[in-house]
Design goal:
Number of helices: 14
Shape: globular
CATH superfamily of the largest domain: ATP-grasp fold, B domain
Largest sheet: 9 strands, antiparallel
Oligomer: single chain
Structural class: alpha+beta
Number of domains: 4
CATH topology of the largest domain: D-amino Acid Aminotransferase, Chain A, domain 1
């Protein structure tokens, strides 16, 4: 098969790395790709949101199957356009991707179908939103309704912090159209976990659990980011809890979307809070998580491509996936200043030495080549991923690899996996 992966981040590098091992594959392309992806796929200089150019390339290159990685092209309707052109693809339609592109849509769906989630209100008017925040008090959560690259959520410890978040979205228009409406939720106390399932519009195939680390700095301090590291499996997600999540959250969502004429085909990523009252849905993503995809692909023993094809063809009930029992961890190395202002172009060395450690794979998230030099070309730049017999062993390998990387312009968290390790201790 001739396959095109759309995207150019760490998630897409992990997908290309896994797909490249498929015996079904004859040619793999990635648009736009990055310097690391170029080792596994032929990179094509087309932006991930250039829908018409992507469809045109898929036609010209006789692509048999397109795998859409990021949320933006899904929200822009890339799958719809590929369908119209008769090109099979993996990912939800624009209408189904609203599970991610509108937090308000998800909250309304949960309310209508009894799916457990935090109490909420939606606002497009700043004065009304501020009044609600003052009446509710803190802690409280303020979310831009649309896609904001993981930076549109504020978990406010004080009323003043919540007010600033409301003003940033509704008055300062910091998130553009994505922040034209805000969702204000009650604060959920518990521990977060990410759960993934493939869905073909009717059937659900659970993948594996993972735990992400959203805050920029050690101890879960600093601003929210797109993710600074992850590990899989998450010990918190027991087999019993998985069945509860499937019964109360995932399957009711899939049924509701089908009944609404928006069948969801793709990977459904549920961000969950495990509370004293059971699992509660925080939000949905309509694609593989980043950096969670990196640890999932590292643990997946089965060929990924047939599973993605089954999602498209509606026969996911015939698929069985096998997983490595070892633990995988990924540490994100980001440019200094991220998630705020950061500089591009700083040189990176030592990657060969890092990858030489047994069980280590370095996925590229934001890199490019300048002559013979590898340089940073994004906020999150590298995903140093390791597998081991225990979380401690995998973590030691990952940080051993980080220490071999020569990149003064970068930083990382040094405590990825701390919750699971603390639980064991």
């Amino acid at each position: 098969m001739r396959v095109l992966v759309v995207g150019g981040g760490g998630r897409e590098h992990a997908l290309c790395w896994k797909l490249a091992a498929s015996p079904l594959l004859t040619k793999l392309y990635c648009a736009p790709g990055n310097a690391g992806i170029a080792a596994d796929a032929e990179c094509v200089a087309i932006g991930q949101t250039d829908i018409e150019a992507l469809v045109g390339f898929a036609r010209e290159a006789r692509i048999d199957f397109v795998v859409v990685g990021p949320e933006q092209p899904l929200a822009l309707g890339l799958v719809d356009r590929l369908d119209a052109a008769g090109i099979p693809s993996f990912g939800p339609t624009r209408a189904a991707a609203e599970l991610e592109s509108s937090k308000g849509f998800v909250k309304d769906l949960c309310a209508a179908h009894g799916i457990p989630t935090a109490r909420y209100r939606r606002f497009g008017d700043s004065a009304a939103a501020l009044a609600y925040v003052r009446a509710e008090g803190a802690p409280i959560v303020v979310k831009a309704d649309g896609l904001a690259a993981g930076k549109g959520v504020t978990v406010a410890a004080t009323v003043a912090e919540a007010e600033a978040a409301v003003r940033a979205a509704l008055e300062e228009h910091r998130f553009g159209e994505a922040g034209g409406t805000v969702v204000i939720e009650s604060f959920l106390d518990g521990e977060e976990v990410s759960f993934f399932a493939l869905c073909d519009g009717a059937h659900v195939l659970p993948l594996a659990s993972a735990q992400d680390h959203k805050r920029a700095h050690d101890g879960d301090r600093g601003p929210n980011t797109g993710g600074m590291g992850a590990y899989s499996p998450a010990p918190l997600m027991t087999p019993e809890l998985e069945q509860i999540v499937l019964a109360r959250i995932i399957r009711p969502t899939v049924r509701a979307m089908a009944a609404a004429g928006r069948p969801f085909k793709g990977v459904l990523y549920a961000g969950l809070m495990i509370t004293a009252d059971g699992p509660m849905l925080i939000e949905y993503n309509a694609r593989f998580g980043d950096p969670e995809c990196q640890v999932l692909m590292t643990r997946l023993r089965s060929d990924l491509l047939p599973a993605l094809l089954a999602v498209r063809d509606g026969n996911l009930d015939r698929v069985d996936l096998r997983w490595n029992n070892e633990v995988a961890i990924t540490v994100v190395m980001a440019a200094r200043g991220y998630p705020g202002a950061y500089e591009k172009g700083s040189p990176i060395g030592g990657l060969e030495a890092a990858a030489a450690i047994d069980g280590v794979t370095v996925f590229h998230a934001g890199t490019k080549r300048m002559g013979d030099m590898l340089v940073a070309d994004g906020g999150r730049v590298l995903n140093v991923t390791a597998i081991g017999g225990s979380l401690s062993a995998a973590r030691d390998r990952a940080y051993g690899a980080v220490d071999r990387i020569d990149w003064p312009g970068g930083f990382c968290r040094r405590d990825i996996g701390w919750r699971a390790l603390a639980r064991k201790g």
